């Protein structure tokens, strides 16, 4: 009898634990899912921005397509599924135009896969990209034919594309692209339009990232195209920088007041009060605030404490 009772007890505990982890899973998904999915995010959309520049959104990713006299230029293939979907659009809209050049904005694998779908004549990337790629499975990354470093002006089929090097910011291989004739900047992973960044912007060195945003903001342009969610105007990038920097400076103040994490008691709640509520007051209506801001808060507290 005792044995049966013990077995029953173990089963009950196991069941309780499994339903509890199910609940955790459900709660996490419910919290994070609306950031990446929903109306206006799911699906794809091909749009014309200026006379010869187009943008393609595929779920929460967005890239840039430039028509030139020598064929198309695509910046960031992202992944195979997105590339296949874009290729279908391009074949339909510009059936006689080949892809002349594919450019990678930075080495990150979620921006550089599936490029072979386009069979480009040339593939351009920052010279340090292979240094990182050698540590990962990159069989889906089409190998560059040309490496660049520093600010580089590309002249392709009569269109000037200025590749603006952003230093150690979001990796040290990051470029923004300024097309002066269109007064447009495509700045992958450097800013969003009225949307909070996911997980504090992964792989971000904050001081360099601020320098990078300021370098782009110093350019004279009108249209700002981000690599995730919507596109907008230059002021959107200015507002986004201010949002990021407000969060950082609140985190800095909180550390000054309540010490570096782990050195005093009950710090988490104090950081939360100091950073979360003022940020929610100002940016609570931006896309992703509810889903992502707490992760950003933790990232800013640790970043400001450690120096990154
Ligand atoms: Zn990235």
Blueprint (SSEs and pairs):
Layout: H1 2-36, E1 44-48, E2 53-58, E3 61-68, E4 71-75, H2 80-93, E5 99-103, H3 109-112, E6 122-126, H4 129-133, E7 146-148, E8 152-156, E9 159-165, E10 175-179, E11 184-186, H5 206-217, E12 223-225, E13 232-233, H6 234-258, H7 267-283, H8 289-306
Parallel strand pairs: 4-5, 5-6, 6-7, 11-12
Antiparallel strand pairs: 1-2, 2-3, 3-4, 8-9, 9-10, 10-11, 12-13
Zinc ion binds next to loops.
How would you sum up this structure, described in words?
It is a single chain. The protein is 42% helix and 20% strand. By secondary structure, the chain is an alpha/beta fold. The chain folds into two domains: 199 residues, Ribonuclease Z/Hydroxyacylglutathione hydrolase-like (Metallo-beta-lactamase, Chain A); 62 residues, no CATH class. The strands form two sheets. The chain has a seven-stranded mixed β-sheet, with helices on one face. A six-stranded mixed β-sheet has the order 8-9-10-11-12-13. The N terminus is likely disordered. The structure holds zinc ion. The site of zinc ion (ZN) has 5 residues, from loops.
Describe what is shown at a glance.
This protein is an alpha/beta fold and about 300 residues long. The chain has helices at about 1-35, 80-95, 110, 130-135, 205-215, 235-260, 265-285, 290-305, and strands at about 45-50, 55-60, 60-70, 70-75, 100-105, 120-125, 145-150, 150-155, 160-165, 175-180, 185, 225, 230-235.
């Amino acid at each position: 009898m005792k044995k049966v009772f013990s077995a029953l007890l173990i089963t009950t505990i196991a069941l309780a634990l499994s339903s509890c982890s199910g609940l955790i899973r459900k709660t996490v998904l419910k919290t994070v899912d609306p950031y990446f999915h929903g109306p206006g995010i799911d699906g794809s959309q091909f749009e014309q921005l200026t006379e010869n520049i187009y943008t393609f959104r595929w779920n929460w990713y967005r890239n840039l397509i430039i028509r030139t006299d020598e064929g198309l230029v695509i910046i960031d293939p992202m992944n195979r599924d997105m590339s296949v979907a874009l290729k279908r659009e391009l074949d339909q809209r510009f059936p006689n135009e080949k892809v002349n050049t594919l450019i990678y904005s930075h080495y990150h694998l979620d921006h550089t896969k599936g490029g072979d779908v386009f069979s480009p004549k040339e593939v351009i990337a920052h010279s340090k990209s292979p240094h990182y790629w050698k540590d990962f499975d990159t069989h889906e990354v089409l190998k560059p034919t040309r490496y660049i470093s520093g600010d580089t002006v590309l002249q392709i089929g009569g269109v000037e594309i200025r590749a603006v090097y952003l230093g150690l910011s979001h990796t040290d291989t990051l470029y923004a692209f300024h097309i002066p004739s269109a007064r447009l900047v495509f700045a992958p992973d450097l800013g969003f339009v009225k949307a909070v960044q996911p997980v504090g912007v992964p792989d971000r060195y904050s001081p360099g990232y601020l320098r990078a945003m300021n370098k782009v903001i110093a350019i004279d342009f009108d249209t700002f195209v981000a690599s995730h969610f919507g596109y907008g105007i230059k002021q959107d990038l200015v507002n986004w920088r201010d949002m990021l920097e407000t969060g950082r400076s609140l985190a800095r103040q909180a550390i000054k007041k309540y010490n570096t994490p782990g050195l005093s008691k009950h710090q988490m709640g104090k950081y939360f009060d100091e950073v979360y509520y003022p940020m929610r007051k100002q940016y609570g209506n931006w896309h992703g605030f509810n889903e992502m801001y707490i992760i950003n808060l933790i990232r800013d507290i640790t970043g400001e404490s450690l120096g990154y």
